[in-house]
Amino acid sequence: MLGGIVALLGLVTGAILLEVLGTILFALTVAYVLLPVQGWLVRRGLTEWTGAAAATLLGFASAVAVFSPILVTLYFRIDQVMAVIEGLPRQIPVTAFGMTYTIDVAEMQTLALDVLSSVAVSFASALPVLAIKFALFVILLFALLLKGDAAGRAAVAPVPHAYRDVVYALARRARETLYAIYVLQLATSIATLLIGYPLFWLLGYEAALTLAIIAAILQFVPIIGPSLLIAPIALYHVAVGDLVAAVLIGVLGIALVAWFPDVGVRPRLARRSAGLPGSLYFVGFTGGLFTLGAIGIVVGPLIVAVFVEAVDILADEVNGDATFSDLVEADLEEPPGSRGTETTMTTPEELPPEESGSHAADD
To answer: Which residues are listed as membrane-spanning (predicted)?
Structure first.
C-alpha cells in the first residue's frame, strides 16, 4: 500500500514538474554515472559533502564541455552556416546514360534557411530559461550525489527481497548503458573534434572549427554519425564540378572523422559498456529523440537497454540455459495428450501405504 502511494505521488509530482522533467531526468542519469566517482573520492579521504561537491564540479565541467560548442556554433557561426547554404547552386545538373537531369534544390535551400532562422530566434529567446534549468541541474546533481545512498534505499524499499536481484541486474544494465552514452560517446566526440578540425583546415574550409564541432555533435547519432555531414559536403563539390575535393573529403572524411574514432577510441573504453547492439541503440536514439526531444537521446537507449535486460532475465527464469531450438524440439516431441490437464479418481488401493493409511485415518 505504501509503495502504491509513493508511486501515485511520484506520478502527480512528475505531472507538476513536467516543464523541467527533462532537466531532472538528465541530472538523475548524470548522478547515476558519477556516484562511483563520489564514492572513490570519499574512500580517498574526502568527506561526503566535499566528495559530492567535487563530483558535481566534474559533472558541471562535462556538461559545459558538451553544450558550449553547440551554443557557440548557434550564436557565433549561424551566419556562416546560412551563407554556405545560400551559396549552394539553385539547380544541380546530373548526367546519366547520355542524358542530363536537373535537380531543383531551391525549395530545400529556402526550407533549411527558415529552419536555421527559427532555431536562432528560439535559442535567443530561451536563454533565460536555459540558464535557470542549468542552475537547477547543478543543484539537483549535488543533492543526488550527497544523498545517493538514501535515494537508492528508497528506490528498492517497495521491492520484495526475493526480487531485488532483478532490480540490481536492471540497475547494473542502466549504469553500463549510461556509461556507454556519456563516457564513450563523449570521448568519441572529442576525438572526432580533434581529428576533424585539422582535416577541414588542411582541406581549405573557412569554417573548419564549425564543421568539426558539427561532426563531433553528430557522433552521438548511432551508426551513421558524422557521415551525415561528410556526404552533403562531398555532394556539394560534385555539384559544382570539383571532383578532386569531393574525393578528398569523401575518402578522408569518412575514414578519419566518421570511422577512425569508433575504431580507435571506443574499443579502449568499451569494457564497462552495456554492449547494446547498434540497431537497438539506433531505435532507442531516434524514438527517444522524436518522442521526448533532446533528453530522449539519453532516455531512449536507456529504456531500450533496460527492457532488453528484463526480457533476458525473464527468458533465463523460464527457460534456463535451453536454446530456442531446444525448446522447439522439446515442444514437438511432447505427446499431444500431455498438454492438457486430466482429472482421474484414485482409489486407496492405488496409493502408497503411507498415503493410503493417512486417507483411511482421515475418513
So the answer is: 24-42, 54-76, 123-146, 179-201, 207-231, 238-260, 280-308
